[in-house]
Amino acid sequence: MADFDITDAGQFEHFGTESVGDSDWITGQHPMDGLLRGERLPHIWCQGCGLGTALTTFIGALQWLEAEQGWDLDKVSVVSGIGCTGRIAGYVRLDSFHTTHGRAIPFATGLKLANPELKVVVMSGDGDIAGIGGNHFIHAARRNLDITVICVNNFNYGMTGGQVGPTTPHGAKAVTTQYGNFEYPFNLPYLAAASGASFLARWTVIHARRLEWTLREAMMYPGYSFVEVIAPCSTSYARWNPEGRGLDPEKLRRRGLELMKHYQNIGKVAHGTHPKDAAIKVDKEGAIVEIVEGVFSNEPKPDFQSAIDEQAQVARERWQAAKKMLNERSQIPQRTDIIFRTEVQLGGFGGQGIVSAGRIIGQAAAIYDKLEACFTQSYGPEARGGAAGSQVVIASDPIHHPHLIEPTNAIIMSQEAYTKYVPKMATGATLLIDDGLVTLSPDQRQDLKTYGISATQIAEELGNSRAANTVMLGLWTAIIGAVSKSAMQQSVAKAVPPKTVEVNLSAFEAGFKKGLRYQVNNTL
Ligand code: SF4
Question: What pTM, to 2 d.p., does this model score?
Fold first, then answer.
């Protein structure tokens, strides 16, 4: 291309007037021709706008990644929202998506999760990313989703006429804040850092080369990378603010150039700055007086997809173990006797193993006796000492309703549970109590068959008071007979900590023997 003086307005007159057919973009003469959609040019941006430079650095970074890192640019996607910056998605010759306002990041999230091989870049404006899409911005950072977010910040909603936005400096003017912005702006790198992002950078477009290098780095970063690009809005923002005021209002290009010069003068390159110290400084009039630039953070950590993969691996292993257990279950001979719907209510207080005991019964029935079983549980508000209950339904036939209707038997290990559950038991049901902890009420239901055992005391004598629930399970197995003794023993051995298997099996045996004696004597 011919040499020209960029300060001479005459050199720019052909922009916006040249016919598409004559453009360099489709004659193959421009070095970025391959990555620009010539048919979409000329672009819509104002003269002096910083977006052209932002796009140039982005394309330069992509070309470098292709040439030097072997990137396949067919696997790079660009997503933008609405606004002047949003047009970039339409100008790059990549798979690109121009989405609704503020929704570029959710769209990119779906794209990346559906096709993790893609490198997804979101390139949009400050209003789109930090205003309307602000919630998506922080949550993608929190998840450390492996995308690159490039936010071109021109300090206002430029395309719609220059309204105040979430990054408009305090005191600066916009078309909707003619007396100065009374709100305070986001410090975007600090917001991203606080949300969890660990690659953070900022450059003005005047530092084009360093911006391009940073964009290469950001796109290669394994996780959420965020680059803020400060670009002059020569038309909307510069019109109202000291940096652009006083220049010939007819020559928008010059306002852009003056802003670029201003950014060059006030830019302070300081890599590694803590983002909280990187707020853009303004004077009393709202004029920007310092912009800290550089790469503030580059500390990779596990990204969203690798966290999912890790958890998926754990789930796969658990599923394999469950499948193995089901295979083992299929080797067990089918019981020939019929077990009619048996509803078991277990009640006590937290810490007694009431929930564990219910689970042991359910697993014994379902896994080791090949019956149908449903198990549910409920807790009081406290973890230990509060009310605890669990329920099990057992039957030979499929169970269509998993909850208890009228318990046919119950294991009760606290006075509170006795008061709560016994009135709900079916007529003629069987009640098993730890008689060291539960006192039968004087008006106790006469229709119930009640059996007691000093389960806690027996467990203490065996050396582990926490095996009291297993004593009750032994008693239950002998008296109720819905689940076989061997199934219960296997389930107990599988459920308790390995070093307590022996004491628990002894506790079970003690309860079972007591139950057999009851069977013989048929008395309490
Ligand atoms: S309105 Fe501002 S940001 Fe938009 S194209 Fe014009 S100068 Fe650029």
Answer: 0.67
Q: Does ligand 1 lie within 6 Å of residue 45's CB atom?
A: yes
Cis check: omega of the bond before 42, within 30 degrees of 0: yes
| Fold classified for 25-304 | Rossmann fold (3.40.50)
Closest CA to 367 of 483, 461, 476, 454: 483
Q: Which has the closest alpha carbon to 430: 348, 524, 340, 356? A: 524
Rounded CA-CA distance 426/345 in Å is 11
pLDDT in tens, 387-432: 789 999 999 999 999 899 999 999 999 999 999 999 999 999 999 9
pLDDT tens string 166-224: 999 999 999 999 999 999 999 999 999 999 999 999 999 999 999 999 999 999 999 99
Q: How far is Cα 472 from Cα 410, in angstroms, rounded to an integer? A: 10
Q: Is the CB of 236 under 6 A from ligand 1?
A: yes
Domain 335-521 superfamily per CATH: Pyruvate-ferredoxin oxidoreductase, PFOR, domain III (3.40.920.10)
Q: DSSP secondary structure string, 225-243? A: EEEEEE---TTTHHHHSTT
pLDDT at 521: 67
Residue 142 token pair: 């929190």
260, 206 in Cβ contact below 8 A?
A: yes
Measure 44 CA to ligand 1 centroid, in angstroms: 9
The pairing of beta strand 267-269 with beta strand 288-298? parallel
Comparing 367-381, 386-400, 505-519, the range with the smallest average pLDDT is: 367-381
**Residue spans per domain, the chain:** 25-304, 335-521
Q: Is 430 helix (H, G, I), strand (E, B) or coil?
A: strand
Protein residue whose Cα sits closest to atom 5 of ligand 1? 45
